[in-house]
Amino acid sequence: MNEGQVDLAHTVALGSIDDEDHHAVQELLDGEDPVLRAVFLAEVQQTKDALCTLSAVTATAPPPALRARLLAAIAAEQPPVAS
C-alpha cells in the first residue's frame, strides 16, 4: 500500500471522507487486487482500534457544574416565534 492509500485508510477510519476520497476508496475496494483490499481494510480497522484505545485512555469526566450550566443556557433560550 502506498502512502496515499494509508492516508485514505486513516480518513475512512476517522469518518471524515469526502466525495473525492469516497470515489478513491470505492475504486480500491472494487479493484482486482484482493491483497491490497485486505491490507487497506486491515489498516482502517487498526486505525479505528487505535483511536478507540486513545479515547478510552484519555477520557475525562466533565466538570460537575457543566450539566447545570448547559441546562440553564437551554432554559434561557427563547422558543421560536411562530409566524
From TrEMBL:
This is Anti-sigma-K factor RskA N-terminal domain-containing protein. The lineage of its organism: Bacteria, Bacillati, Actinomycetota, Actinomycetes, Mycobacteriales. The keyword Transcription regulation applies. InterPro entries: Anti_sigma_zinc_sf, RskA_N. It comes from the Bacteria. Keywords: Transcription, Transcription regulation. Pfam families: RskA_N. Residues 6-51 form the Anti-sigma-K factor RskA N-terminal domain.
